[in-house]
Structures are given as structure tokens and as C-alpha cells.
Amino acid sequence: MKKHHVLVVDDDKLMTWSLKEKLNNEGFEVKTAESGKQALKIIQEDSPDLAFVDVFLPDIDGIQILKEIMKINEEIPVVMITGHGSVDTAVMAMKLGAYEYIQKPFNLQEVAIIAKKANESRSIKREMNRQVEKAKETHNIDNIIGESPEIKKVLEVIQKVAKSDASTILIEGESGTGKDIVSKAIHYSSARANKPFMDINCTAMPNSLVESELFGYEKGAFTDAKGRKMGLFELADGGTILLDEIGDVPLSTQAKLLKLIENKIFKRIGGSSDIEVDIRVIAATNKNIREEVKKRNFREDLYYRLKVIPILIPPLSQRKSDIILLANYFINKFNKEFRKNVKGIPAKTEKALIAYNWPGNVRELKNVIERALILESTDQILLEHLPTEVIENTYIDKDPNQTVLLPATGISLEEVEKSFLLQALRLANGNQSKAAQLLGITRYALRYRLKKFGCQTDKELNTEN
User: Looking at the domain assignment, is residue 402 inside a domain?
Assistant: First the structure.
């Protein structure tokens, strides 16, 4: 098992020896330095996992050492060693990024506990940084797929907004258009990327819990408030909060929400102290908020405060040129995920995908491709691999001279004949002679076919209507 490296910086040789012995016994590998210059050389050559630094050193001030360590590698936890009367300096060090401070004379067992906790903290911080870097890569603006003029306009706005200090953004669009993806792209392409991104689905929270979840509460604020709880706005401090389906937030909460956005200050439920936060609020909705304002379901002042920068994401039906691009993107994605080797989409399948209106937008297209790759074992996505609703208006061997076209899914010839007979009768208001003329057959042939299908004309007509 790899030993974690600790650097002890102190000009007190006895103190340094004591720390080294204790930490060695706890499984750490310890290096020591008696001066700031020596310490900085060790940090640059062999970055430690943890550092204990005395506030007072013979050459360089301990605070300056802390600053230099933060510049070299801010992941290194630094524990400041202070004497009596230097607590103020230690507090300053904490503000500058020190993990903890210990006062001389200290308990070596307590020092060992601090070292272990600091080491765990570093591991957690490293993992968090790794996750953030992964999120930046995953949710990069360049990963938003589309070359249509409609989506290019959206991308231009996103890039400008991400670099700006805009504190409120309103994203509108139908369900499944990718409002959450756009929100994450804005956050992870901004200066706030290393801070929290809170995704809150306002529809999923009962009205009675919305305020307590957003603003938090103090102990005893209501019957079940057994202790203090930090709200999501507080937890998102420095970062971005996505209020998904903002149109479903109750009116009683909207007033508090407006105040928070305006002043960046709020109170926990049952609390008296103001809590100040620095957050970017992204509100997303598939509702027409202007109509909700007219219906008095949404505060007009909040609406105008949110739409400082509005972003409208077009539905997939308005960006048809992106459909095949997106489909191929999802094929590559699910090929990796499911270890498949689907190579592409034949022309007939492409036509079907483009002809369909995609009421579920990009999410529906993603689901269709995912389903095809899970259930099918061929190296192409064929027409028969698509859901019925996608191909029901798509035809095979389409001929411009044909007046009746066969659906790709096939159909019963008898059902077609019966349907045309009844349609003709409806158009002729039940007049069999006229219906026969519409179909280009004799009245006798019409009656024969009606009898063949067991149709009782009046009853069938009433049923069909």
C-alpha cells in the first residue's frame, strides 16, 4: 500500500523529531525542513500529500509558505503550527486556504487524527476535481450536436452567456429539446465551473416542501424540523442553480424567489439572520410563461427578472437537418455503451426519421436509437427496427404516379378494401349507386363486396362516423 508523504516545516528540531516519529508510526512517510527555502524546494521537487508549517520561520514567513504551496498545488492540505498569541495569524491562514491549525504544545494523538482527516479530505477534493473535469468535458458547448441555422443561433448565445456575469437566464423550449443540456453547458463553460451545479425539478417537489428545500430551515421552524437544514440555494453558493419547470413553482414561493434573485439574500424558514449567496439562476420551462402571467399563475415581475437573457431552444421538427447528425451521434454513443457495431442508417431509414415530426424531440430520437441498438443485432438500423409511429407515414418504393401507397409496415388488403367501401358510402351519404361510381365499380359489385365483408351499411356508417 502506497504511503502518503508528509512535510513538516519547523525550525524547532525537537518538535520536528516528535512529529516525524508519531506520523511515521501512523504509516506516513515524513520529510522535514528547518527553513522556508528548504521547504519550497522539497514541495517543487516532490509534492507532498500533506504539510505541517510553522507560522514563524527563520527566513520566510509561514503565511508566505502557505501562499506558495497554494500556487504550486492547491490540493495539498496545509496545517499551520502556531504558538500562544499567534491565533490571529492562524485564522488569517485559514482564510487563505489552510486546512487546520494546531497550537503548541499540542497532543501528538490529536495531530495524528488531523493528519488522517486532512489526507481523506485531499482524496475527496481530488475526486471532486476529477468529477468536475469530467463534467466540463462531457457538457462542453462543442458537444451540443447541430449544424442547422436554428441551433447555431442558440450556440452563439450560449457561448456569450457562459463568459458573461449574467445572473439570470430563462431557457424556454418543448419537453425533450435539451434545456438541461444547455444549462450544464453554460455552467461548465463559465468561471463557476468548479463550484456546485444544482439541478432542481420544481415539478417533482410537493408545494409544501418547495420553500424548505430551496431556502432551508432552522430547528423548530415547524413540527418535523428536528435540526437546522441548509437549503439548495445555500449549497449552490458560488455556482449555478437550475430551476427546471419554473412554471410549476407556487405563487407563494415566487415572491421569495424574486427577492433572492434581486438581492442575493434570503432567510431560512424560521430564521432571523440574512444569508448572502453568489449564484447564477437558470430557469427552464416548457410552458408559455407569458400565458401563465396572463392567467395569473406566474408573477409578471419575476418573469421579467428571469428573462434578462432568454434562450429559446427550437423543437426538432424545426431543425430537420440535424436529425441524422443526432441519430449518428447516438449510434456512436450506444455502440460504446452496449458494445455494438452498428455502422449506419440506410437511405430509407433516414427518410423515415426525417419525415417524422418527433413530438418528444431529441429525447425521443435518443430513445428510438437506444431501443434499436438494444433489441436488434444487425449492423444497420433498418425501417423494421423503428417504432410504428415513426414509420406509419413512410412508404416503400414511392412512385409519384401512384395514388395509393403501401405503408412500410404493411397492411391487410381486405381491411383497405373494406375501409374504401365505407369511405365511399360516407361521401355518398349512403347512396350506393353514387358510392359505386366513386369507386369505379357497378352497384352490383359494391353490394357484393359489402355482403362479403358482412357490412350492414347503415350500421357500419354510424359506427365509422
Answer: no
Residue labelled with grid coordinates 520566510: 60
Instruction: Report CA 343 to chain centroid distance, whole Å.
Output: 29
**Beta carbons of 82 and 89 less than 8 angstroms apart:** yes
DSSP state of 34: S
Q: Residue 327 burial by CB count (10 A; 0-12/13-18/19+): exposed, middle or buried?
A: buried
Is the pLDDT at 463 greater than 60? The verdict is: no
| pTM confidence score | 0.71
The amino acid present at 17, given as its one-letter code, is: W
Identify whether the C-beta of residue 284 lies closer than 8 Å to the C-beta of residue 183: yes
Cα dihedral: 106, 111, 113, 117 (round 10): 130
First-residue to last-residue Cα distance in the chain: 79
Its domain, for residue 447, covers: 413-464
Centre a 10 Å sphere on the Cβ of residue 124 and count the other Cβ atoms it contains.
Answer: 10
Q: For residue 5, what are the β-bridge partners?
A: 29
Separation of alpha carbons 446 and 432, rounded Å: 7
Dihedral of CA atoms 269, 297, 288, 198 in degrees, nearest 10, equals 10
Do residue 308 and residue 450 come from a single domain?
Answer: no
395 against 17, higher pLDDT? 17
Residues forming beta bridges with residue 230, ordered by sequence position: 216
| Res. 327 pLDDT band, cuts 50 70 90 | very high
Contact predicate 355/393, CB 8 Å: yes
Tens digits of residue pLDDT in 89-115:
878 888 888 999 898 888 899 999 999
Strands 100-103 and 78-82: parallel
Q: What is the DSSP letter of 322?
A: G
Strand partners, 269: 217
Q: Are residues 146 and 287 in the same domain?
A: yes
Q: Among residues 242, 233, 240, 235, which one has the least CA distance to residue 264?
A: 233
174 and 109, same domain (yes or no): no
Is residue 185 packed enough to be buried (19+ CB in 10 Å), middle (13-18) or exposed (0-12)?
Answer: buried
